[in-house]
Q: What sequence folds into this?
């Protein structure tokens, strides 16, 4: 993305085609137009709804009949102590889970490196095929699986742990709030580790084999080869993905947390996205909108910060 | 080629074989566990006796659960949105991704960026809901289809893939007088099959798994999807089991009564099965498609 190869090509274009360019310029645009309209309707038009954050809007009453309150809903976030505490709690969860995600984003790299060390091709292929499956099921399904495995009275995990004497009878993992951040990140990697490694596997396949052969001649050990050839070969991919995920720091998505939330773990599982959903369902439309608004602004700011950083550090832009 | 392993190497190999073995098992076992529980005696299953192999195999759960009113209709809705939604998404991603490789397009950079940025930024749940409501997309099948047509990530994948195709192929075609549509159809589409297959599975899976849109936009049961029903059953499966037991045409034999657990597990299995079946056919495209499409970032 964003590599300025276009300029080169333009000057090299033969003069023959310049006559057609003026027409095709708009022709191409017209062909793309229907899709641009769809993008506008479903991604940009909803932004007009941000106006609801400035009114005391109650669902069912037209906006024109509701009082304009200016920044009231934004002010409650900092002025109303209970509200501030809520927002801080949710921010803490969001930052904690996103940070855990960033820190553990080396997992797929390690997975890919170790997998390529496996000699038996059939085993490698089998691991790769089977570990990517969980990525394709929904969080609702993940929860349904978790529910079956960890259920108090007949789940197999509880059974085995009780038999081994490791937990008391009927410990309810899913309704427990302790270690919920770790549990969530564990489920996240269960679902996405195999899939996340695919990019790195591809990158490893793209590393020049001669480098390894040369290192072998020089007597490099397995770990030296990994450290001095494979790891540097993966760093560009890792960086791009890391920067992309920084832009999403405040968007954890909500399906995972929505599926796993219950009365017991609500305090520690509620990330921003889920919080917005929950207050929206409690019919506090203006406040939910205000929170979404801030969230989007922060996301875009982070994205551009990451982009600038990438330009400075690696001379490569991600958008 | 076979070299003798040093003891350190053998140990290292042993450890990584085991690590991957354990992780792979942990990825597969939940599905297997679910399956053997749905086909085993419901009493044994409810008591937690079914762990590694099925006992007293029967398929009553499936035949009974499939007859729950609304479930087969929900399956149809899910299939419908998956098929139609996927076709449109793949078509649009392929065409738009191709158009964005044309440097002569008016305002290309701006349009492209304005689509990519939407991956990071959204208006938020409420503004989205209000917009959908104003567009009359609540209780409307189109709500499942229209918003998914433009999926930024797919468009990036196609664009990057097409850029890797040697430009001479396109040029020779256009010298022969082929227009953009012609070039797209006879050159780009056949050459981009791996990435289009990848997008097909992405989009089909996300349609099949989609849940939030039903939860928000649909109140009429005739628009409910399997995924949504599963979520409801997770929360209220005991009443559901009673529903099955009490309906006259389904008088279950006493020894194999449907329990809340068996109903929940069976529905989960029904929702997960299509993915497990379709997956192997598309798996081989992933690495190829993703590799060429995204490694360049």
A:
């Amino acid at each position: 993305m964003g590599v300025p190869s276009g300029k080169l090509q333009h000057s090299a274009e033969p003069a023959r085609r310049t006559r057609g360019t003026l027409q095709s310029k708009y022709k191409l645009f017209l062909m793309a137009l229907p899709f641009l309209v769809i993008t506008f309707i479903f991604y940009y038009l909803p932004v007009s709804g941000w106006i609801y954050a400035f009114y005391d809007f109650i669902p069912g009453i037209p906006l024109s009949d509701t009082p304009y309150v200016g920044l009231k809903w934004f002010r409650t976030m900092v002025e109303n102590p209970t509200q501030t505490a809520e927002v801080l709690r949710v921010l803490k969860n969001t930052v904690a889970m996103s940070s855990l995600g960033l820190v553990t984003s080396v997992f797929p790299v390690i997975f890919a490196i170790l997998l390529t060390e496996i000699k038996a091709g059939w085993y490698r292929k089998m691991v790769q095929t089977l570990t990517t499956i969980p990525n394709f099921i929904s969080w609702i399904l993940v929860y349904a699986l978790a529910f079956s495995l960890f259920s108090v009275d007949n789940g197999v995990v509880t059974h085995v742990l009780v038999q081994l004497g490791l937990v008391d009878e009927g410990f309810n993992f899913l309704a427990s709030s302790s270690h919920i951040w770790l549990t969530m990140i564990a489920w996240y990697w269960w679902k996405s580790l195999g899939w996340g490694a695919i990019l790195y596997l591809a990158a490893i396949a793209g590393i020049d084999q001669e480098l390894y052969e040369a290192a072998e001649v020089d007597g490099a050990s397995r770990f030296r080869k990994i450290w001095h050839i494979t790891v540097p070969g993966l760093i560009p991919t890792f960086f791009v993905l890391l920067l992309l995920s920084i832009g999403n720091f405040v968007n954890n998505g909500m399906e995972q947390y929505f599926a796993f939330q219950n009365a017991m773990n609500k305090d520690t599982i509620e990330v921003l996205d889920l919080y917005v959903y929950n207050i929206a369902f409690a019919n506090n439309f203006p406040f939910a909108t205000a929170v979404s608004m801030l969230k989007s602004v922060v996301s875009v700011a982070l994205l551009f910060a990451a982009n600038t950083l990438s330009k400075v550090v690696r001379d490569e832009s991600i958008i | 080629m076979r070299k003798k392993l040093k003891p350190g190497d053998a140990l290292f190999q042993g450890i990584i074989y085991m690590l991957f073995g354990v992780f792979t098992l942990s990825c597969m076992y939940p599905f297997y566990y679910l399956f053997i529980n749905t086909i085993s005696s419901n009493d044994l299953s409810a008591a937690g006796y079914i762990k590694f192999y099925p006992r007293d195999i029967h398929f009553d759960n499936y035949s009974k659960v499939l007859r729950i009113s609304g479930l087969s209709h929900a399956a149809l809705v899910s299939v419908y949105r998956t098929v139609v939604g996927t076709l449109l998404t793949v078509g649009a991603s392929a065409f738009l991704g191709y158009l964005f490789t044309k440097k002569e397009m008016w305002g290309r950079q701006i349009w492209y960026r304005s689509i990519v940025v939407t991956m990071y930024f959204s208006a938020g749940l409420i503004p989205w809901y209000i917009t959908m409501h104003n567009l009359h997309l609540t209780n409307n099948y189109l709500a499942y289809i229209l918003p998914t047509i433009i999926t930024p990530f797919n468009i990036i994948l196609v664009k990057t893939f097409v850029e890797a195709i040697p430009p001479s192929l396109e040029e020779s075609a256009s010298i022969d007088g082929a227009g953009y549509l012609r070039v797209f159809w006879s050159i780009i589409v056949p050459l981009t099959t791996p990435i289009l297959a990848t997008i097909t599975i992405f989009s089909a899976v996300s349609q099949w798994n989609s849940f939030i849109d039903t939860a928000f936009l649909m109140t009429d049961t005739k628009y409910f999807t399997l995924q949504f029903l599963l979520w409801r059953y997770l929360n209220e499966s005991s009443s559901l089991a009673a529903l099955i037991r009490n309906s006259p045409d389904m008088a279950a034999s006493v020894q194999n009564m449907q329990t809340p657990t068996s109903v929940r597990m069976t529905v989960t299995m029904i929702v997960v099965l299509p993915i497990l079946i379709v997956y192997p056919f598309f798996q081989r495209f992933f690495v190829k498609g993703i590799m060429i499409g995204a490694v360049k970032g």
